[in-house]
Amino acid sequence: MMFRATVLTLYPDMFPGALGLSLAGRALEAGTWVLEAVQIRDFATDRHRTVDDTPAGGGAGMVMRADVLARAIDHASPEGDPRPRLLMSPRGKPLTQERVRELAAGPGAVILCGRFEGVDQRVIEARGLEEVSIGDFILSGGEPAALVLLDAVVRLLPGVMGNEASGDEESFENGLLEHPHYTRPQEWESRSIPEVLTSGNHKKIAAWRRAEAERLTAERRPDLLAQPPKRAT
């Protein structure tokens, strides 16, 4: 099953962007996944290709129109399309590694990139859009967030990472932040690689890495320790 991503945007030239490089780019070229960027303005009906209007009830900014967006969504995701419909939004549910893995195991995603003050609530409800946030901050539009989400998903597709096991101990995979990493040279600016990592004792190395992961998590993300583990360790 090939992963198919369709991005609805006012700026299709932003894609593939960084997704055309490195792991994601090689996978895209190899046909491991497919990316389509759809211009929302193509579904406007007036000669100015208008996609927004003033907010009902007054206020600053503009709101993306439900009728235009619905036509774009219906074109990209007709009836029977099994892919989830996502809306990149700062008020959405925070994106987690667990959700990333769910998406990577599925057929793909249809991703709507909001702009202006937001999207008419009626199209969110009528087309079953899942609002997704990549953090507690505001971007100029949903495109950078869509790139982040797709990068996180594509690297988990079968065959994309050279060593499939390389993702098993990454941050958030087992409910902890990742342990520190070291490589040659052994000495650098009077700093040494911890002796346990050069001991050859794999049991001690595993215990050290686990302890360091727990220490970093307690210092930087204690909220993660209050959650049940998401993967067996």
UniProtKB/TrEMBL annotation:
<keyword id="KW-0808">Transferase</keyword>
<keyword id="KW-0963">Cytoplasm</keyword>
<comment type="subunit">
    <text>Homodimer.</text>
</comment>
<dbReference type="GO" id="GO:0052906">
    <property type="term" value="F:tRNA (guanine(37)-N1)-methyltransferase activity"/>
</dbReference>
<feature type="binding site">
    <location>
        <position position="114"/>
    </location>
    <ligand>
        <name>S-adenosyl-L-methionine</name>
    </ligand>
</feature>
<dbReference type="InterPro" id="IPR002649">
    <property type="entry name" value="tRNA_m1G_MeTrfase_TrmD"/>
</dbReference>
<comment type="similarity">
    <text>Belongs to the RNA methyltransferase TrmD family.</text>
</comment>
<dbReference type="Pfam" id="PF01746">
    <property type="entry name" value="tRNA_m1G_MT"/>
</dbReference>
<dbReference type="GO" id="GO:0032259">
    <property type="term" value="P:methylation"/>
</dbReference>
<feature type="binding site">
    <location>
        <begin position="134"/>
        <end position="139"/>
    </location>
    <ligand>
        <name>S-adenosyl-L-methionine</name>
    </ligand>
</feature>
<comment type="function">
    <text>Specifically methylates guanosine-37 in various tRNAs.</text>
</comment>
<dbReference type="InterPro" id="IPR016009">
    <property type="entry name" value="tRNA_MeTrfase_TRMD/TRM10"/>
</dbReference>
<dbReference type="InterPro" id="IPR029028">
    <property type="entry name" value="Alpha/beta_knot_MTases"/>
</dbReference>
<dbReference type="InterPro" id="IPR029026">
    <property type="entry name" value="tRNA_m1G_MTases_N"/>
</dbReference>
<keyword id="KW-0489">Methyltransferase</keyword>
<dbReference type="InterPro" id="IPR023148">
    <property type="entry name" value="tRNA_m1G_MeTrfase_C_sf"/>
</dbReference>
<protein>
    <recommendedName>
        <fullName>tRNA (guanine-N(1)-)-methyltransferase</fullName>
        <ecNumber>2.1.1.228</ecNumber>
    </recommendedName>
</protein>
<keyword id="KW-0819">tRNA processing</keyword>
<keyword id="KW-0949">S-adenosyl-L-methionine</keyword>
<feature type="domain" description="tRNA methyltransferase TRMD/TRM10-type">
    <location>
        <begin position="4"/>
        <end position="226"/>
    </location>
</feature>
